[in-house]
Write a structure and sequence with these properties.
20-stranded parallel sheet
Length: about 475
C-alpha cells in the first residue's frame, strides 16, 4: 500500500510538470506569432566576427542614376555595349557614349579602356557639346581591315571625324591603328605599278583622324600608326595643341602625312616623334601662327609648307616657325613647295636650330612642284618672301644639293636670310654646290658649303602691284 502511494505521488508530480511545460511552450509560441516573424532556416554561413553583435541585415545596392555609367562624368564605352575584341562592330556603342557625354552639362570623359580593341566604322562625331570633353584612349581603336571590309555606303575618304567641337582633348596611353597596309597596296598608289608607276582604279583612302571647323583642341600622349592616308588632318580649326605623340608608318607607305593643317590658325606641335611615307608635318593654305618645336622627323619627306597654288588657286601662309628639331634619313628637310600658276603669298617663315641627319634636300624652295613630268609652264606663282634659315646643321645625301632655291621666273623669291648654316656630306668629302634660280637674299654668316648663287638686293623687275599679298 505504501509502495502504491509513492508511485501515485510520482505520477502526480510528473503530470503536473508536463502541464506546466506544455503551457509554457504554448504561451511562448503565442507570443512570437503575435509579432508575425516566422522562423526560417538559413544555409548561408555568416562571416566570423571578432565580437558578437546584432545580425547584419541585407539591403540591395542602390542602382546608379545612369545605368551606363557608375562614375559621374565618366563614360566607359564598354558600359555602352562595346565588346572590344577588335572584330565586333562597336560603332553604335561608341557613338552612344559620345552622344551621352556630349550632352553632359559638366566636363565629360569618354574612356576606351586598356586591354580592349574597339573596332569603329567611318563615323562623324558632331558637336558642339554642352561642355568640355576628353576622349581618353588607353586601349586600341581600329577601323575595318582594308578596302574589302569597308562598308560600301561609308565614306572612303575619312575614318574618324570630329566636327564643330569646342574644348576637346584626345589623349591617353593607347593606340589608334589605321590598318593601312591593304590600302597602300591598291594599284593606283605610287610605287605600286611597274617601275614606280601607278595604275588606274579606285584610289580613295581614308584619313585616320580629321578635325573640321573645331576650336581649342588638344592631342596628347597617343600613338597613331599605319593610317591609310594622312594620320591627322585639321581643317578650319583654331587653337590646336599637339604634344608628346608618336606617329609611325613604313617609309614607303604612300601619302601617309603625319599631321596636315589647312585653313587652321594658332597651332602648336611640340615634343613628338613622326616617321612615315610622306611629310611629317605639312602646312596648307590659310594657315597662320604655327609653332613647331622639338620634333623628331624621319624617315619621311620632312616638314613642308605646301604644296600651294594647285589648279591656279590662291594660297596664303604666314608666321610659321619650325625650331629645335631633328630630321633624319628623309627625302627633304625643311621645304616650301608651290605649283606654277598659283597666286597668294608665303611670308614670315623661320626655320631655326634644326639638325639634319643624312637628308637629301635639307633646305628647299621648289616653285616648280609637279607630281609628273607633264606640268606646263605658267607665269603666275605664289610669292615667297621673308624666309629665315638659322642654325641648320648636319649631313646631307650627296645625290642632291644641300640647298635648293628654285624660284619662279616671273615671281622671284625675296629676302631669304641664311645664318649659321653648316651642311656636310653624309658620305665622303666631296661637297655639292647649292642651287639657286631667281632667288634674292642675304648671308648673315659664312655658310658651309659656301653659297654664291643667291642674288643680292631686290629684283628690279618685280613691281609691288604685281604681288598678290594676303
Amino acid at each position: 500500500m505504501k509502495k502504491l502511494s509513492k508511485l501515485s505521488l510520482v505520477c502526480v508530480i510528473f503530470f503536473g510538470f508536463f502541464l506546466l511545460s506544455t503551457q509554457a511552450r504554448w504561451h511562448n509560441h503565442t507570443k512570437h506569432s503575435k509579432h508575425n516573424h516566422p522562423h526560417k532556416i538559413s544555409y548561408i554561413s555568416q562571416p566570423p566576427s571578432s565580437s558578437p553583435g546584432p545580425a547584419a541585415s541585407y539591403s540591395p545596392p542602390e542602382e546608379p542614376k545612369n545605368p551606363y555609367n557608375s562614375t559621374p562624368g565618366v563614360f566607359n564605352v564598354r558600359l555602352y555595349g562595346a565588346v572590344g575584341d577588335g572584330q565586333t562592330d562597336d560603332t553604335q556603342a561608341f557613338k552612344m557614349a559620345w552622344d551621352t557625354a556630349c550632352q553632359s552639362e559638366s566636363p565629360a570623359k569618354i574612356i576606351v579602356p586598356n586591354h580592349f580593341t574597339i573596332m569603329i566604322q567611318s563615323t562623324i562625331f558632331t558637336g558642339p557639346c554642352l561642355s568640355g570633353l576628353v576622349l581618353q584612349v588607353d586601349g586600341v581603336i581600329v577601323p575595318p581591315d582594308g578596302p574589302e571590309s569597308w562598308p560600301k555606303n561609308n565614306s572612303r575618304r575619312q575614318w574618324l571625324v570630329f566636327y564643330r567641337i569646342n574644348k576637346m582633348s584626345l589623349q591617353g596611353s593607347g593606340v589608334i591603328d589605321g590598318r593601312g597596309d591593304k590600302w597602300w597596296q591598291l594599284p593606283c598608289k605610287p610605287h605600286m605599278g611597274i617601275n614606280g608607276t601607278t595604275l588606274p582604279g579606285p584610289c580613295d583612302s581614308p584619313v585616320a583622324i580629321r578635325f573640321f571647323m573645331s576650336s581649342n583642341l588638344t592631342v596628347q600622349g597617343l600613338r597613331i600608326k599605319n593610317s591609310p592616308q594622312f594620320h591627322f588632318r585639321f581643317d578650319g580649326c583654331i587653337n590646336v595643341n599637339v604634344d608628346s605623340i608618336s606617329i609611325s608608318a613604313p617609309a614607303r607607305s604612300p601619302n601617309t602625312d603625319g599631321i596636315h593643317i589647312e585653313n587652321t590658325n594658332d597651332v602648336k606641335i611640340y615634343n613628338s616623334v613622326i616617321s612615315n611615307g610622306d611629310d611629317c608635318v605639312s602646312i596648307g593654305s590659310g594657315c597662320y601662327d604655327v609653332d613647331i618645336r622639338n620634333i623628331t622627323c624621319g624617315p619621311g619627306h620632312g616638314i613642308s609648307i605646301g604644296s600651294l597654288g594647285k589648279h591656279n588657286s590662291r594660297a596664303c601662309v604666314k608666321n610659321i616657325t619650325v625650331r629645335d628639331s631633328i630630321i633624319r634619313v628623309s627625302d627633304n628637310g625643311v621645304r616650301i613647295k608651290t605649283w606654277q600658276g598659283g597666286s597668294g603669298e608665303v611670308s614670315g617663315v623661320t626655320f631655326s636650330n634644326i639638325h639634319m641627319d643624312n637628308v637629301r634636300n635639307p633646305i628647299m624652295i621648289d616653285q616648280f612642284y609637279c607630281l609628273t613630268k607633264q606640268c606646263s609652264n605658267q607665269t603666275a606663282a605664289v610669292y615667297v618672301s621673308n624666309i629665315l634659315y638659322s642654325g641648320i646643321k648636319g649631313t646631307y645625301d650627296v645625290r642632291n644639293a644641300p640647298m635648293h632655291f628654285g624660284c619662279s621666273d616671273s615671281m622671284p623669291c625675296t629676302n631669304l636670310t641664311l645664318s649659321y648654316v653648316e651642311l656636310l656630306p653624309a658620305v665622303g668629302d666631296m661637297m655639292s654646290d647649292p642651287y639657286c634660280w631667281n632667288a634674292y637674299g642675304q648671308l648673315q654668316t659664312v655658310t658651309i658649303p659656301p653659297i654664291s648663287c643667291l642674288l643680292e638686293g631686290a629684283p628690279r623687275t618685280l613691281l609691288s602691284d604685281e604681288i598678290d599679298r594676303c
